[in-house]
Design a protein that fits this description.
Radius of gyration: 24 Å
Largest sheet: 6 strands, antiparallel
Shape: flat
Oligomer: single chain
Length: 149
């Protein structure tokens, strides 16, 4: 008796799903970071002022001096005193500001607004409210001044 073979051909099918829209904050961040990198500014000073519910030593204003892209000094603008090591992390260079923005986007902060300098692409003001219902978690970082050396 002849044998009968059944051949099944399985054809994978793609499930089409709508592409998730890009986060406008991320698109804006990438465009401005690219503008900053294209500027090629590696020696500069910026003055930062933080608004937060935190110790006065981590508010500023602080002048951050950058050489070859690396921070070489952080001093309190009004006194000229160096920022203590435990507070230095609160006063980054421009690349560090971009990193703060990216971390907040990735952690899905409840509210966030960023203003960028139209000439350099550097962040000019960052507002982050990580948890809308939490009290005293808001952070504002303002770049008071940015100048090349």
């Amino acid at each position: 008796m002849p044998s009968l073979w059944i051949v099944l051909i399985i054809v994978p099918t793609a499930v089409c799903s709508p592409q998730e829209p890009e986060n406008p904050l991320l698109v804006e961040l990438e465009a401005n970071r690219e503008r900053w990198v294209d500027l090629g500014l590696t020696d500069y000073e910026l003055t930062l002022l933080r608004g937060c519910f935190c110790p006065i030593e981590s508010i500023g204003p602080v002048t951050v001096r950058v050489r070859n892209g690396e921070i070489v000094s952080q001093t309190y603008t009004e006194t000229g005193m160096p920022v203590p090591e435990q507070h230095a992390v609160f006063f980054p260079n421009v690349d560090g500001l971009f990193d703060i923005i990216l971390e907040s986007i990735e952690s899905d902060a409840d509210r966030m607004t960023v203003t960028y300098d139209s000439n350099t692409g550097a962040p000019a003001e960052i507002f982050i409210d990580s948890i809308e219902a939490a009290v005293d978690d808001e952070l504002t970082i303002t770049v008071v001044e940015l100048s090349d050396d």
